[in-house]
TrEMBL record:
One of its GO terms (biological process) is xylan catabolic process. Residues 200-224 are annotated as: Disordered. InterPro entries: A-glucoronidase_C_sf, GH, Glyco_hydro_67_C. GO terms for cellular component: extracellular region. One of its GO terms (molecular function) is alpha-glucuronidase activity. It comes from Pleurostoma richardsiae. Residues 209-224 have a biased composition (Basic residues). This is Alpha-glucuronidase. Coiled coil: none annotated.
């Protein structure tokens, strides 16, 4: 589980060298891929409706690859010889990888695969029940359960932003499909009754203030 956790986390948070798709503007926790660009804090994914990814080449990009040893730099400088898992170029969503998948379909596939794998860690932890102290077991299980839910949030946030930007549908039919989601306007409010509440407020002029004054006055003058 420990060895598998790295690629699983990478798959549902950011892959192909895109990375760092967390919220960089507000909470600094959880996904917010839209916060990466079009602001003064970062221009990281360079994603638009046709293309994605930061170009790190010396020839046409940030020049980052010039820091690598010459042989490695030459390998990564050419998009055709760059490994699929390190997308160091600005490319079309529909560019084919060596695997045959388009870049956008790879994004969809691995985000769903990564989040699905995260759902299995809690069950894997069960083999340690009774073999480590209960407090440690429950603490780790809690974190794995949280991760399983958070992986779904990451998956949808990134996949659906890419889908929204590119307009390219998911061949697997997962992105944008929410069979269990209920639209708020379709919900029915049943089993409850509406009741107006009058909470005590300490501010002068509020209902609670006047009730307190009335109560105090009656008791001060000997009235029950």
């Amino acid at each position: 589980m420990f060895v598998a956790s790295w690629p699983v986390y990478e798959n549902y948070t950011g892959n192909l060298g895109i990375q760092a798709l967390s919220d960089i503007l507000y909470t600094h926790f959880g996904p917010n891929p839209a916060s990466q660009d079009n602001n003064g804090r970062g221009q990281w994914t360079r994603a638009d409706h046709l293309t994605i990814s930061m170009d790190r080449t010396v020839k046409n990009g940030t020049g980052y690859l010039g820091q690598c040893p010459p042989k490695i730099a030459a390998l990564y400088e050419d998009v055709e010889t760059t490994p699929d898992e390190l997308l160091l170029h600005h490319v079309n969503y529909t560019q084919r990888q060596k695997s045959g998948n388009t870049v956008i379909q790879h994004f969809y596939d691995v985000h769903y695969a990564g989040s699905a794998a995260a759902q299995t860690f809690g069950a894997d932890m069960d083999v340690l029940r009774g073999k480590i102290d209960d407090e440690k077991y429950e603490e780790v299980l809690f974190r794995l359960t949280y991760q399983a839910g958070h992986a779904l949030v990451w998956r949808c946030a990134i996949s659906e932003l890419c889908h929204c930007l590119s307009g390219v549908p998911d061949e697997a039919g997962g992105v944008g499909v929410h069979p269990w989601r209920i639209v708020a306007e379709d919900m029915r409010f049943e089993g409850h009754r509406v009741s107006l509440g009058y909470p005590v407020r300490e501010g002068v002029g509020g209902p609670g203030h006047h009730q307190k004054l009335k109560h105090y006055s009656r008791h001060r003058h000997g009235h029950a």
